[in-house]
From TrEMBL:
Protein name: Response regulator transcription factor
Feature: DNA-binding region: 133-232
Positions where 4-aspartylphosphate occurs in the chain: D53
PROSITE patterns from the UniProt entry: OMPR_PHOB, RESPONSE_REGULATORY
Domain OmpR/PhoB-type intervals: 133-232
Record keywords, A-Z: DNA-binding, Phosphoprotein, Transcription, Transcription regulation, Two-component regulatory system
Top-level division of the source organism's lineage: Bacteria
Response regulatory domain mapped to chain residues: 4-117
Organism name: Belnapia mucosa
Length: 233
């Protein structure tokens, strides 16, 4: 079955041109011109991935992402303008998986979409060599790759695809320091350029989610100027 992509943007020229490109590549595409209609549509008929503009009428991309994250870990790519650096970081902290700056290459967008879909599929498949049939247990942390679930002290932690892969990359080798380049490769794949601040924003988001479940959570440690590591409880 072809993957379904939701495009949400109030610029109809972008919707038309990007839809044509994606459909030519074999994707099923649904388009929405505002956040409110997109929310209703995506809750009724979930997509495999969503591409969201930030500035839209009736409900902007930030609010739409927040509402979607209450119900879904669907991969999300944000479209931002060159002068919206703060919005990029806020989007990542809210749970976006990636962002692309306008004006953008449709080939680049297509590459990012395919990379996210591959990662999403891989994270749900049983990892080769992973103990206990795709389940990673590190103290109070339980990651199930086959179900794409994360539990901390028995509490379900809702992670996006990118967040899940970051936690897995750190937890699979407790105590080992991972620099940002290694985490970028683990979460995004090789040959994908991602700014270092993107990883930092994802880690902050992950910590926030764990601390909402356990205020004492301190397993993901920052080694300033080096990277991050997972401290097994």
């Amino acid at each position: 079955m072809p993957a379904t992509i939701a495009l949400v943007d109030d610029d109809r020229n972008i919707l038309t041109s990007v839809s044509m490109t994606l459909e030519q590549e074999g994707f099923t595409v649904r388009t929405y011109t505002d956040g409110e209609s997109a929310l209703q549509g995506l809750l009724a008929r979930p997509a495999d991935l969503a591409v969201l503009d930030i500035k839209m009428p009736r409900m902007d991309g930030m609010e739409l992402l927040q509402r979607l994250r209450q119900r879904s870990a669907m991969p999300v790519v944000f479209l931002t303008s060159k002068d919206e650096e703060v919005d990029e970081l806020m989007g990542l902290r809210l749970g976006a998986d990636d962002y692309i700056t306008k004006p953008f290459s449709q080939r680049l967008l297509l590459e990012r979409i395919r990379a996210l879909l591959r990662r999403n599929e891989a994270s749900r498949a049983e990892g080769s060599g992973t103990p206990q049939g795709g389940v990673i247990v590190r103290g109070d942390l339980v990651l199930d790759e086959t179900k794409h679930t994360c539990h901390w002290k028995g509490t379900d932690i809702q992670l996006t695809v990118t967040e899940f892969l970051l936690v897995k990359a750190l937890a699979i080798r407790p105590g080992m320091v991972k620099n940002r380049d290694q985490l970028i490769d683990a979460a995004y794949g090789e040959n994908i350029y991602v700014d270092d601040r993107t990883i930092d924003s994802h880690v902050k988001r992950v910590r926030k989610k764990f601390r909402e479940a356990d205020s004492d959570f301190a397993q993901i440690e920052t080694l300033y100027g080096i990277g991050y590591r997972y401290k097994e409880s």
